[in-house]
Amino acid sequence: MKKGIIIFGLLGLLILGGFFAKQKFYGSTHRIKNAKAEVKQLADNNEIENGDLIFQTSLSSQSKAIQLATKSKYSHCGIIYKKGKDFYVFEAIEPVTRTPLDQWIARGKEGKFVIKRLKKAKEVLTPLALKKMKQVGDSFIGKSYDLTFEWSDDKIYCSELIWKIYQRATGIEIGKLEKLRDFDMTNEVVKKTMKERYGNKIPMEETVISPAAIFDSELLTTIKSN
Fold first, then answer.
1. Parallel, antiparallel, or unpaired for β 53-56 and 114-118?
2. Most CB contacts within 10 A, which of 61, 122, 139, 160?
3. Exposed/middle/buried for residue 169 (C-beta within 10 Å: 0-12, 13-18, 19+)
4. Alpha-carbon span 78 to 91, nearest angstrom
């Protein structure tokens, strides 16, 4: 009996030890620490610039459905800007806001990200163009996240925010616009999400721009991935 209690106690300690080790290495504090180190390295090496685009696999409830429907691992994206010595990501979440870059990175799956840049960035992203991009972006601040992916400006989702800021400020369309019907809706996860959002009336002709379409744009080049 005593031997059994000892063994049970040791097993309990191992489980608890594993739990705390996981928290130490994979918990939010560790993720933030890693993300801060990533951002410092990016800044020290001058690897990021105003107007760069950043992509990640979101941990949101809809992320898996977006990945399956668009056949891409990336489900969230934003625009990087520099303010003083700090970098932040302008993004459409709830609501549209600016998020410190390290916090944005830490929020994604395993802290992984890809940064892309317009191939003609030096020609296109002049101080005047960047100022206009920020002005266009400011018109969206505080707007709610668009769960039904409509093409109006009433609400907005992440890739739509990027597309509209670049198009309206520079005339450049990053990523091919599609219709909702162009996505793969055969997976049960996607079907369930669509049912929750639209019921039985899915607007198949709605214009959409996905994170995948922007990520795959030939106008961009990859600057950094981890």
1. antiparallel
2. 160
3. buried
4. 5
Angle at 26 between CA 23 and CA 31, to 5 degrees: 120
| Largest Cα–Cα separation, the chain | 78
Closest-CA residue to 164 (of 182, 183, 138): 138
For residues 137 and 133, give the distance between their C-alpha atoms in angstroms, rounded to a whole number.
6
Evaluate if residue 7 carries a pLDDT over 60.
Answer: no
Alpha carbon distance 217, 209 (integer Å): 11
Q: Tokens standing for 66?
A: 């977006």
Q: Which amino acid is at 126?
A: T
For the segment 182-219, what is each residue's pLDDT rounded down to a tens digit? 999 999 999 999 998 899 898 999 999 999 999 999 99
